[in-house]
Amino acid sequence: MGSNMAEQHPVGFQWVMEAKERGAKVIHVDPRFTRTSAMADLHVPIRAGSDVAFLGGIVNYIFETGSLFRDYVRAFTNAPVILKRDFQDTEDAGGFFSGWDPDQGAYSIDSWGYGGSPPDVDDSMEDERCILQVTRRHFSRYTPEMVEEICGCPKEKFLEVARAMCENSGRERTSSVCYAVGWTQHTTGVQNIRAACIVQLLLGNVGRTSRRSTTSSPGISRCPSRTRTRRSRGSWS
Question: Which residue, 165, 195, 205, 236, could crosslink 55 as a Cys pair with Cβ 3.0–4.6 Å?
Fold first, then answer.
């Protein structure tokens, strides 16, 4: 998503093609049909700027189908940590998170922290104020029907992508999300990348040994005599 890797990052794309030859499924989610789309197993066109809704739908699908890698999430994310009692999500605060100051047009984030010092933790991740449950409730709005309405792609295609991501993740397999300037230079670029990181962390696809399983951003330097590839790892904070 957010990348035309075949044309803009051909050096990195060769590894995608080698993986495809070994059986990997390549999916391209992008408003345009490009050379990357042509080389992919599946192209899913969406409306420009609707990436967060598409990714939010995958997050909701992970929860609804019980596909999250629970042991990984408990051990390697802050999902078990309990938030302060005065934190409020958008449903409880008139469309804003707690701490919104309309006069300043900005948030005071005092209520967004962890409860207790050291932070209170629920290893069962069932407490209604633990980060996993807050995340589940927040993304529950992104049903397949809402994704179809916002993104403009058929519900069946969205479900095919979500199902493929979940089936190819877990203890024995991992999936990778590749993005580039289509996300990083977007007005909601931070939200795009954070949503993708949440998907990957729920599925246990970050930091797995010998796997290219993190959210990655292949980039080519502006100097024509040198080509480099950069990767950035997402974190759930």
Answer: 195
Same domain? For 114 and 44 the reply is no
Of the candidates 174, 171, 162, the one whose C-alpha atom is nearest the C-alpha of residue 54 is 162
* Continuous segment of H or E residues that includes residue 27: strand 27-29
Question: Are 108 and 135 part of one and the same domain?
Answer: no
Q: Compute the half-sphere exposure of residue 66: CA atoms within 13 Å on the CB side of its CA.
A: 0
33: left (phi over 0), alpha (psi -120 to 50) or beta: beta
CA–CA distances in Å: residue 200 to residues 102, 127, 174, 217 = 34, 22, 9, 14
The pTM (predicted TM-score) of the whole model is 0.87
| CATH code, 205 | 3.40.228.10
Tokens of 144: 């397949």
The pLDDT of residue 106 is: 96
Q: Which parts of the chain register pLDDT below 70?
A: 209-237
Among 95, 120, 145, the domain-final residue is 120
Q: What's the CA gap between 211 and 173, in Å, rounded?
A: 9
